Structure formats: C-alpha cells, structure tokens
C-alpha cells in the first residue's frame, strides 16, 4: 500500500531544509498579528445601546455568581461504584 508518491515525499524532505519556507511563515504570522490589531474594535461604554445592555447583564450575572461565598464550598454528591468496597 502506498500512501504518497515518492516525488511528493522527496519534495517534502527537500523543503525541510529550505530557509525560504521559514521566512515566508514568519511574514504570514506577522501580517496576521497586524491585521488582528487593526480590526480590533473598542468596546462601547454608552450604557444605552444593545451591546452595552447585554454586557451589563452578563456583568451582573457573574457578580451574583462569584459574590456567593459558599459557591465553591458547596458539598458535591460523589457517585461511586458499589464494587469499590470489595
């Protein structure tokens, strides 16, 4: 059974030592970082638009959840096999 042609394997092996491929990859990563920083939007803080209202809702939900001092101390019902005592 042949998974790949011998020419394709030779081309891949030859490309391993090729420094041009590495340089091209670095430029692609750098370009992606520049594009990501350029497309980043600033969060609106008006308090009236739909996004601000939704953000405030989630902030309230998380504040209620983590303000509970017993949240992480609640007992957990442990389930085990009846065969563990054998």
Describe what you observe in this structure:
The chain has 86 residues and is an all-alpha fold. 58% of the residues lie in helices and 0% in strands. The protein has one domain (6-68). It is flat. It has three helices and no strands.
Radius of gyration: 28 Å
Number of helices: 3
Shape descriptor reads flat
Strand content: under 5%
Nearest-integer average pLDDT:
75
Global structural class? mainly alpha
Topology:
Elements: H1 6-16, H2 19-39, H3 50-67
TL;DR?
This protein is mostly helical. It is built from three helices and no strands. It has one domain.
Features:
mainly alpha, 3 helices, single chain, 86 residues
């Amino acid at each position: 059974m042949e998974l790949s042609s011998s020419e394709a394997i030779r081309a891949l092996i030859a490309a391993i030592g090729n420094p041009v491929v590495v340089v091209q990859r670095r430029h692609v990563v750098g370009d992606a970082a520049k594009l990501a920083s350029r497309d980043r939007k600033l969060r609106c803080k008006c308090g009236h638009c739909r996004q601000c209202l939704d953000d405030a809702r989630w902030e309230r939900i998380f504040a209620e959840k983590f303000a509970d001092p017993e949240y992480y101390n609640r007992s957990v019902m442990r389930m085990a096999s009846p065969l563990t005592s054998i």
